[in-house]
Amino acid sequence: MKNFVEELRWRGMLHDIMPGTEEQLMKEMTAAYVGIDPTADSLHIGHLCGIMMLRHFQRCGHKPIALLGGATGMIGDPSGKSQERNLLTEETLRHNVACIQAQLEHFLDFHSDAPNAAELVNNYDWMKDYTFLDFARNVGKLITVNYMMAKDSVKKRFNGEFSQGMSFTEFTYQLLQGYDYVYLNQHKNVKLQMGGSDQWGNITTGTELIKKMTGNDAFALTCPLITKADGGKFGKTESGNVWLSKQYTSPYKFYQFWLNVSDADAERYIKIFTALEREEIESLIAEHQSAPHLRLLQKRLAEEVTVMVHSRADYEAAVEASTILFGNATADALRKLDEQTLLQVFEGVPQFTISKTELEAGISPLELLAVHTQIFPSKGEARKMMQANGFSMNKEKLTDVNTPIDGKALIDGKYIIFQKGKKNYYLVVAE
What we know:
With 431 residues, this protein is α/β, with parallel strands linked by helices. 46% of the residues lie in helices and 13% in strands.
């Protein structure tokens, strides 16, 4: 067994650790869990640090358990939140749980017969028949209100740092999460709960409950909340979260996110978000520092994470799509793009709309470029650039000023990409 705590330490993934945790993990194979609230039907990269903790945990010879909060997700964790969450219906939660389970299988081995094969559990299974009276008698009486009020997540809401107070529903969250730990300790021999540093209060409530209800030892470990080197929020872009689902964030966009991180962030992220070994990472960092303009770290980080979350084929398609703007991509590569990726590749370039009916009848290139659109200010300028071999349509040189452009030029029956010189692109949409 590898030393899991040491693995987290050099990767920059260790924030708080309860005394005795490292000794427990070196003594025997141990089961640990990370809780995930199924508030959406996809995880986003804000979840990745916790998932990578489970992945490293399994690689170090221990047993990872992913707990989906089907029950706690109905309430919402107040940690770091300024407002109450909208409560989800049971049907929505079931759908979200199924989608998240499929995503977790990219990271963890659930299906082998190894003694440390991962397990997925849903706290709705043991909470759905637990009556309020039983919970109040068996769990509520063991933790004082003073203890619960002392937690940061509660204090911040009561001390007016945020705009609202806290309902009784949210106040009970730490007891429910604490009871999850008790249940897993009793039924799955789980001795460690892990999570983000904002979860320390909820996790230690669980260790306290276990001590009082069973007398067993239980441990806690958290990773830091990931930020960007400039202090900005990790995983947020102008268009919102970077999701693991292709439906919400295409593999191209996902790849671009990692490719565009700063040098300082790339050095941290390649340790946290990949399973590469220490020697290889240190060698990559040294190589990157000797030639930062090549962005070797960003390229390797983007490759590792995109392949892990999506697939090798998705990664290769994302790389190919990236070369369309900045490399010598072919017309075939352009036509292979799905509509979502094509629009993302050409996001922000000048865009013109033309009549599809007129185009299908055929429009002279000079008319199209200088009258129907404003790609050129005049037909004379369009003619000059085309004859000088400096203009392309759908990645193929366009030099014939006389042959009409018609519907056959359309990509996906809707788009034409024009290119003036090396860097100036124009998207024409036929409607």
